[in-house]
Amino acid sequence: MIADVSKSDKIVVEKSTVPVKTAEAIEKILTHNSKGIKFQILSNPVFLAEGTAIQDLFNPDRVLIGGRETPEGNKAVQALKDVYAHWVPEDRILTTNLWSAELSKLAANAFLAQRISSVNAMSALYEATGADVTQVSYAVGKDTRIGPKFLNASVGFGGSCFQKDILNLVYICECNGLPEVAEYWKQVIKINDY
Length: 194
Prior knowledge:
By secondary structure, the chain is mainly α. The chain has 2 domains: 2-98, Rossmann fold (3-Layer(aba) Sandwich); 103-192, NAD(P)-binding Rossmann-like Domain (Rossmann fold, 3-Layer(aba) Sandwich), CATH 3.40.50. The chain is built from 8 helices and 4 strands; from the N terminus they run H-E-H-E-H-E-H-E-H-H-H-H. The chain has a two-stranded parallel ribbon with strand order 1-2. Helix 2 links the parallel strand 1 (10-14) and strand 2. Helix 5 (98-129) packs across helix 8. The longest helix is centred in the middle third of the chain and has 32 residues, at 98-129. The mean pLDDT is 90.
């Protein structure tokens, strides 16, 4: 483990989609097992789409770095920002606290899944009323508040992320005493299976 072999302070970057407060758990484990070494945990979730991962890596629409809002945490965030600054424009590098970064990744995936489920639910109505899915999607996508992406009816979301991340969000909502919000996100999965 990194705590066993470290001889100086370290920055540890979590890249995966994780439950909120994972950084806190990592920090506790490392601190408990360290020998006076300090660890700064950063959340730097990847926003890659299956099929465009390489393009997304080299030309991201944003890079998110979350860290502790302390002098040491800010220094660690800046160190990672400096790495990304070699190929990512500064206005695309966003910084937040740890929990906001962890939750932002879950929220982004949940919103994308929700959009896919919403379009598929609406497509059933389009078919029932004789509306043309392509025409409605084009008209709705022209609203700048909505935009044209993910407006085509499809078989629903699949892959390795969306359902897992929504269930993670459901769990977080339930743990924080938000059963109605948890139920809402469960319905996104239910309509996806419709």
